[in-house]
Design brief:
This protein is an alpha/beta fold and about 300 residues long. The chain has a single domain, classed as 3-Layer(aba) Sandwich (Aminopeptidase). It is about 45% helix and about 15% strand. The protein has a six-stranded mixed beta sheet, sandwiched between helices. It is globular. About 5% of the residues have low confidence.
């Protein structure tokens, strides 16, 4: 038979020793100075990000184009075979488009981001609305399951995607945020539905026209996808009062497209082509307003 006193002493000894060690450590840790302090900037109560600078002519009557470089910050977007990141390519493409537009001196330009920072989907289109933009363009470089897929594609808004590829792409891009509803306070259900439908039809037609111009102007300069114009329910395109388009400049998953988008000369050519389409589009939209006074007898 084991002596209970001896057994109890043997069992208690490690516990007492562990408690003593912990007490010493706790006392020591209480006097340890931290090597560094991490400070995080918290958003203010308003929760509204600041607006980017508007570049170009000082004349506020000149049309304004807001260019959105997709992804950014902790969201790298799609990846290429050689380590390319979509967020880097889209920023360089957006900057090239801005430079091409500013070189002409005809329009004003603002970028939703000019650095590697993250913006939620609602903030991107909201920037364009708050700046009273005349056109919103979101630039991306998608990846496909097949490395053979290549070419640029222009997406405009649709309640239903034009095909399964467009639907899958929109679903993937929209995961980052929820869709903001349209404020129609004080309107009845029937009136609201009619207003929304009319606005959506008008903006959809205008956005599609812009896509047509990009394809037309880029026929000899840009390699387009076999189906260059598509429709999809992208959150960033869901505006009822602002022509909007999402341009996939190419497939980052395709080695030729990725190489082209990395090349500064190619980006400049791409930007000049899109800039021409932008200026033609804006001129067409301004034409009726400019002609209206002469029509009055």
């Amino acid at each position: 038979m084991v002596d209970r006193g001896i057994f109890g002493t043997a069992l208690a000894a490690p516990i007492v020793a562990a408690a003593a060690v912990w007490a010493v450590l706790a006392a020591g840790l209480a006097h340890v100075e931290p090597r560094y302090v991490v400070k995080l900037a918290m958003p203010d109560d308003a929760g509204v990000i600041g607006l980017p600078k508007v570049e170009g002519p000082a004349d506020a009557s000149r049309p304004l184009v807001v260019i959105d470089a997709g992804h950014g910050g902790h969201d790298p977007g799609a990846s290429g075979q050689d380590g390319e990141r979509e967020k880097d390519l889209t920023l360089m493409l957006a900057q090239s488009m801005r430079d091409a537009l500013l070189a002409s001196g005809r329009v004003r330009v603002a970028l939703t981001r000019d650095t590697d920072r993250f913006l939620v989907l609602a903030e991107r289109a909201d920037i364009a609305h708050r700046l009273n933009a005349d056109l919103f363009i979101s630039v991306h470089a998608d990846a496909a399951s097949s490395a053979e897929a290549r070419g640029a594609t222009i997406y405009t808004l649709s309640d239903k995607a034009s095909d399964s590829v467009a639907e899958a792409l929109a679903a993937r891009e929209n995961r980052a945020d929820a869709v903001n509803g349209v404020s129609l306070a004080g309107k009845g259900q029937t009136v609201s539905s009619i207003l929304v439908d009319l606005a959506r039809r008008e903006m959809r037609g205008s956005s599609q026209r812009f896509g047509e111009l990009v394809v037309r102007e880029g026929t000899d300069a840009i390699t387009f996808h076999t189906q260059p114009q598509r429709e999809a329910a992208f959150v960033v395109l869901k505006s009822l009062d602002l022509p909007s388009a999402l341009i996939e400049a190419g497939y980052i998953s395709n080695s030729e497209d990725a190489k082209a988008m990395r090349d500064q000369t190619w980006r400049k050519s791409f930007a000049r082509t899109v800039a021409r389409a932008i200026e033609i589009f804006l001129a067409e939209r301004q034409a009726p307003a400019l002609a209206a006074p002469n029509d009055v007898q």
